Structures are given as structure tokens and as C-alpha cells.
Amino acid sequence: MAKREIGVGLIGFGTIGTGVVRVLREHAQSIGERLGAPLKIVRIADLDIKTDRGVKIPKGMLTADARGLINDPAVDIVVELIGGLEPARSFQLEALRAGKPVVTANKAVLSAHGIELATAAEEAGVVLGFEASVGGGIPVIRALKESVAGDRNLEVYGIVNGTCNYILTEMAAGRGEFAEVVGRAQKLGLAEADPSYDVDGLDSLHKLVVLTALAFGKVIDPKAVHVEGIRSVSGVDMAYARDFGYTIKLLAVARDTANGVEARVHPAMVPNSHLLAKVAGAFNGVCLRGRALGTSVYYGQGAGMMPTATAVVADLIEAARSVLAGQAPLVLPYGQPAASLDKARVVPMADIEHEHYIRFQLSDKPGALAKITTILASVGISIATVAQHEKPSKGAVPVVMRTHRTQEKALAKALARIAKLAEVRARPVVIRVEETLGQDH
To answer: I need a surface site. Which of 53, 85, 167, 319 has the fewest CB within 10 A?
Structure first.
């Protein structure tokens, strides 16, 4: 006989947790109709049990005892929304080993311990849902596990951090430099008080590791992935990108190659003709290229209370269906047995080829540019264009070059020599030019 109510225990009552409570309450009737049973929050655990979240909580529902919540017989499904590695990992494992489905938005713990958690879920025969961990409300994880399960995925890439995309969109529109726009994003609630996790690319890295496992069935070491943030990007770079026909975005890119998985996170110049160039504000866009399907694009709000909460609730509904049926889920956490995922080599960034945009600050003296071009030529780097729009200032002049395709290690070698020149007044800014997204190499 079907259970009359499915009880949800929520660990973490921050922004997303509050959103989950609101969605479950506002959509209670339609969710109950889809399930054939009510889906209700019965306990909430958080270290802060005094702050008003703007939603009314019945007396006795809120507790600081997360383990008590996990062991409560009234809790059928556990939602972990505290973030970080510990105690999030331990809470998830305890719930799974107790035979309770787990739903999470925690990309950091999935990046580091996803296979361990998926194995525990499989052994217990319960759901481990993490749709909200990548792309906010965009159903890209469910698409990878189910919709394109019959294809051979070759590449997954895109804009997976809404905070950075908002910052770069504002800078591209001329509405401020990096520090000013970050401050505005913080006031709007789009950036944390310490924005490092977002602007230094770590959030995108963790999401890329999750996407790689789902797309290719391969596990990569996050420490082996090249990661750059957006702190070095300026309005000057935005202007040059616009003149060249590009838009600067923070990209997370993974390609499955014969030599391993090419995985990287960094700012890039994206052609204005590409769909990703049109992804603005706090929105995300993820592109998946398969051998049979070709390229598909998943676009939507990648952050925020309600978009992310809808993804959490979608996983809750899947878990509730499994509980009501009294059987193990039909779809495994990664769409295949965790034991079948291979540990893959990450292709060193030094071996990857790109076109490059390079901005130098040079002394306003004859011969400075010639020295740089000579060094670049000595390591086999040819120059496509040279531009100088700004006038000299304080004895220095900005010079921009765009190179033809060259290996990263050749450019690194050249820049190390160029840095020793007396004519170079500042560290060069290097941004990769992405002309081959979604193409065979």
C-alpha cells in the first residue's frame, strides 16, 4: 500500500534551502498529483536556527541536529544543501547507508567524492540526485543520464558560472571594471562576500568534473585540470574582443580524445556567431556534442534561489517515486554503474593548441615590438594581427597581438623570455581564442 506522505529532511537552510521550502509549499498540489502522495518538509537542520528566512516554520521542525534528522523515521529523503566537503560528505553517506535517498546541489563534494557517494547509493538501492549541482535550473544532468544515453559524447563545454557571466557581461557593456562590477554583483546577491570561489574558476572546475563523468563515463582528477579565473580581464580586453568580433566568456571545456580528457577552465574569446556569445547576465549555457546527435545546447538561469530550488525538487520527485514504488531507481546516479567509470588521464595544458590574444604594456621606445616578435618567431609562433588603439601613457603603450594556433608550452616559453625584457612594463594578459568549439580536431 502506498505511503500517504513522503517526508523530506532538509540539511542546510540558506538561500537554496529556503527556496526548496517555498517551491514545495507553493506547488504542493501539483506535486502531490504527479506523485499520488504529498511530498512535505518534516525536519530542517541548520547551525543557525534563529534567523528569519521569510518562510514560516512550524515549532519543533527546525533543529541543529543533522544526524538526528537523518535518523528520524519520519524522514524518507535527505536533502543536503550545506556545501563544502565535510560534514556534507559524511551526512550524505550516513543517509545513503541508512537506505534513504539523498538529493544535493553540492558540486564540490561530488567533484571530490562523487564515485564514493554513487557507490553507496547503488549498494543501498536508493536515489542520489544532483541535478542542481550544475546549471541551476537547467536539466543538463538529466539529459546526460537519459536523453543522450545512446550517443557517444565527444565534447561538453560552456558557461557554468552565473556570477562570472554577469560580471563579464557588465564589463563588455562598459558598465564598469572588474572590482566595481563585483561590488554591484554582491549587492544584488549574485556574488558572495568573498567571490574567490566563483571568480577564480573553482566553481566551474567542480562542475566540469561532474559533467565529464556524466558525458564520457570518465573520472578526472580536479588537481590536474588547468584553471584560470577572470581577475585579469579588463575593459580594454573587452573592447579589443569586440573589435575582433568576439565576446569574452569564462568557459569550462572537456573533450574526450585518444590521448585522454582535455579539461580546462579559463576566460576565452568566443566568436560572436556562436550561441555562447549571446548568453548574458547570470544565465548559463552548456553545449554537448555527440557523434550521432551533433551539438545540443542547454540554456537557462544558472543560479539563484528559485531556479536551483526547482532542480532540487525535481530530484526529490524522482526519489519520492522510488520510495513509493518500494524499489531501486531505474537510472543510476551517473547513468551507469559507478564501478564502470574509468579514471582518465587529463591532457596537460602545455600540449593543447590555441590561437591567443596577448596584450603587452611596452616602453614607448623604438625596437620594443621587434624584440617581442623575434622571440615569438624563435619558438615557432606566427602573428596573425597586431593592433594599437590607445595612445602612450606615462611612457608605456599597450600593444595587442593575435597569434595563429600554437601549443601552450611554446607560448609559455616565449613569454618567460619576453618577461625579462626591460621594455616590458607589466605582465602580459593572455586570453585564448576559441575558434574550434564544437568541431573535430
So the answer is: 85
Kindly state the helix (H) or strand (E) to which residue 416 belongs, with its residue range.
Answer: helix 408-418
Q: Which CATH superfamily is domain 350-433 in?
A: ACT domain (3.30.70.260)
Residues noted as catalytic: 207
Pick the closest to residue 116 from 100, 132, 128 (CA basis): 128
Q: How remote is the C-alpha of 182 from its chain's centroid?
A: 18
Residues 6+ apart with CB under 8 A from 420: none
Q: Which fold has domain 6-136+305-341?
A: Rossmann fold (3.40.50)
Q: Which helix (H) or strand (E) covers residue 414, if one does?
A: helix 408-418
Residue of 159, 435, 151 whose CA lies nearest to 295: 151
User: What is the full per-residue pLDDT of the chain (441 aa) written as tens digits?
Assistant: 456 799 999 999 999 999 999 999 999 999 999 999 999 999 999 999 889 999 999 988 999 999 999 999 999 999 999 999 999 999 999 999 999 999 999 999 999 999 999 999 999 999 999 999 999 889 999 999 999 999 999 999 999 999 999 999 999 999 999 999 999 999 988 899 999 999 999 999 999 999 999 999 999 999 999 999 999 999 999 999 999 999 999 999 999 999 999 999 999 999 999 999 999 999 999 999 999 999 999 999 887 889 999 999 999 999 999 999 999 999 999 999 999 999 999 999 999 999 999 999 998 888 889 999 999 999 999 999 998 776 666 678 889 999 999 999 999 999 999 999 999 998 999 999 998 887 776
Cα 345 from Cα 221, distance rounded (Å):
8
List the one residue out of 253, 80, 300 whose CA is nearest residue 157: 253
Contacts of 36 (CB under 8 A, 6+ apart): 2, 324
Query: Coil, helix or strand for 174?
Result: coil
Which fold does the domain 140-301 belong to in CATH?
A: Dihydrodipicolinate Reductase; domain 2 (3.30.360)
Determine the 3-state secondary structure of 222 from DSSP: helix
Nearest 10 degrees: Cα torsion 258, 436, 353, 388: -170
Domain ranges of the chain: 6-136+305-341, 140-301, 350-433
